[in-house]
Amino acid sequence: MAEITLFHYIPKKTIIHQMDGRLKLVCMILFTMAAGFARNLYDLAILTSVLFMIYMAAGLSVKRFMIELKYFFILAGIIIGAHSFTVPGTAIPGFPIQRITWEGLNSGLLLSWRLIVMIFIGAIMTGTTSLLQFKNAVEWFLRPLPFIPEARVATMFSLTFVLIPLILDQISEMMDAQKSRCIDGRKDPVTRILFLVRPLLFHAFMRAEEIVQAMESRCYSEIRTKPKFKSTLNDWLVLAFSIFICFIIWVD
Amino acid sequence: MAILEIQHLSHVFPNGTIALDDVNLSVESGEFIVIAGANGSGKTVLLRHMNGLLSPTSGKVLLEGVPITKDLNHARRKIGLIFQNSDNQIVGQIVSEDVAFGPENLNLPREQVDKLVQETLEAVGLSELASEQTYTLSGGQKKRLAVAGVLAMRPQIIAFDEPFVALDYEGVVQVLSQIVALHKKGHTIILVTHDLDKVLAHANRLIIMEKGRIVKDGDPGWLIDEVEKYGIKKPYGGRRVGTMTWLK
Questions:
Q1: How would DSSP label each residue in chain B?
Q2: Do residues B148 and B120 lie in contact, with contact meaning Cβ atoms separated by under 8 Å?
Q3: Given an 8 Å threshold on Cβ–Cβ distance, is A225 in contact with B92?
Q4: Domain membership flag for residue B23
Q5: Which residues of A touch B53 (CB under 8 A)?
Q6: Do A221 and B105 count as a contact with CB atoms less than 8 A apart?
Q7: Residue A221 in contact with partner chain B when CB distance is under 8 A
Q8: How confident is the model at residue A2 (pLDDT cuts 50, 70, 90)?
Q9: For helices A150-179 and A189-217, what crossing angle results, to 10°?
Q10: Where are the domains of chain A?
Q11: What residues make up the domain containing B30?
């Protein structure tokens, strides 16, 4: 179960992988904003083309993306269908189903495409950025903000990603253990959930206690060595390009 | 002078359970000590006191003659503790990040942290896995990573809490080789285990605990015939202590 990861880091040595995590995070935010600004399908087509080029430059697998996102494509289809039938406007001439409108189809396409683009941006970011780089970048951006203990936030961020696969494994094991004792025979879903949640919470708290002790035994402190960043000319060029694309879409 | 000394240490849990009862122990530099005892005999609680993770009800723990409570960070640097469940000790998503956790906590310069991480990963044979996600490691590799996390802080004493639990044959051999190599390099080893047949050949001292007290302390060859009285399995076949190892 721990292996189920829609967005997985794929270590490679491409320009995108080696980019400074802080600048990459800014680029991701800019592209996400651009997807939000896009008012028509042309804007989204430009953005998709650019992202596709970045995706290819990062050496990520298109096939893998398509396979992993198949359920999102189904969701996109449902959004398009729902909009086509519900948004009032001009009916599509010659189409066998009368209630479908141009405006509905356009609005459905825009919304679902925007959703896919945002997932695409997320896939590029997570596929090319290790969690360590990502954590360090978040910590760096939080540093100037008052009242936010950036080191603690970064540790929590790190621990969350360490614990998720372990907790998923534990859930899977508990479910298997309960199935082996015929839990399927119980029809009441609330009882079944309680049988899972109670021991899970108990173990989670026990584990949290143990982790705290393990961190203390390694001298945990919030005054700690700061991460080191290195940005190259390439990184700044990618950032400039991202600003340019965002600007074009915003002006359009 | 003893490197580590425990004087009249007692620990009583809030529910009244006596975990440690007037424990006295002196550890010399370079020793390899195995602590054995039935479940609930107080072995793990004793280890956690050595690392200052628990506060004693009475008594004290001295490191090089100084109470560890005077400078807990110093004590934790000098006495590394490897927990029973490595999953709970690993706090980094990436192998190298986890090894760096301790040195970063000491606020060492970045270059020194990187150097320590590289040297430590080489020492435990995990250099090739430096960029791997920690949850993808095998049980033996996770245990070695836990050792690396502690080694990066350059401890003198390394305390292992049940290091062979849930490991397959290969994992046990990997971890045991690591422990023996650390001892040969001059580290003092304190190891809590039930599995005497896996490790006792390498120890020069066996301590048996029962109901929070140290009931036997001495040469493993002298004590091996008495272990079953205290709920510890004696390896089968009347073997000599020198054969009690899983290393070839």
A1: --SEEEEEEEEE-TTS-EEEEEEEEEE-TT-EEEEEE-TTSSHHHHHHHHTTSS--SEEEEEETTEEGGG-HHHHHHHEEEE-S-GGGT---SBHHHHHHHHHHHTT--HHHHHHHHHHHHHHHT-GGGTTSBGGGS-HHHHHHHHHHHHHTT--SEEEEESTTTT--HHHHHHHHHHHHHHHHTT-EEEEE-S-HHHHGGG-SEEEEEETTEEEEEE-HHHHGGGGGGGT-PPPSTT--GGG--S--
A2: yes
A3: no
A4: yes
A5: 213, 216-217
A6: yes
A7: yes
A8: very low
A9: 140
A10: 21-251
A11: 4-243
- B20-54 pLDDT per residue, tens: 999 999 999 999 999 999 999 999 999 999 999 99
On whether residue B248 sits in a domain, the answer given is no
Least confident of A63-72, A175-184, B61-70, B96-105: A63-72
On whether residue B213 sits in a domain, the answer given is yes
Complex ipTM value: 0.85
Q: Which residues of B touch A224 (CB under 8 A)?
A: 104-105, 107
Q: Does a structural domain hold residue B87?
A: yes
Output the six-digit token pair for B89.
């000790």
Q: Which chain A residue has its CA at the smallest distance from B109's CA?
A: A225
Q: Are B134 and A164 a contacting pair, CB within 8 Å?
A: no
- The CATH number given to whatever domain includes residue B155 is 3.40.50.300
Cα–Cα dist B113/B53, whole Å = 24
CB contact under 8 A, A210 and B94: no
A132: nearest Cα among B2, B92, B5, B160: B92
Among B91, B139, B86, B141, which Cα is nearest to A162's? B91
Chain A residue closest to B52 (CA)?
A217
Does the beta-carbon distance from B53 to A216 stay under 8 Å? yes
Facing residue for B97 by CB, picked from A9, A132, A211: A132
User: A49 touching B, CB under 8 A?
Assistant: no
Q: Which residues of B touch A (CB under 8 A)?
A: 48, 51, 53, 73, 76-77, 80-81, 83, 85, 87-94, 97, 100-110, 113, 131, 133-135, 149-150, 153
Q: Does A205 touch chain B (CB under 8 A)?
A: no
Q: Does A160 touch chain B (CB under 8 A)?
A: no
Q: In total, how many domains does chain B have?
A: 1
pLDDT in tens, A139-173: 899 989 998 888 888 888 878 877 887 788 888 88
Spatial neighbors of B221 by CB under 8 A, at least 6 apart, are: B240, B241
Range in A53-57, A60-64, A241-245 the model is least confident about: A60-64
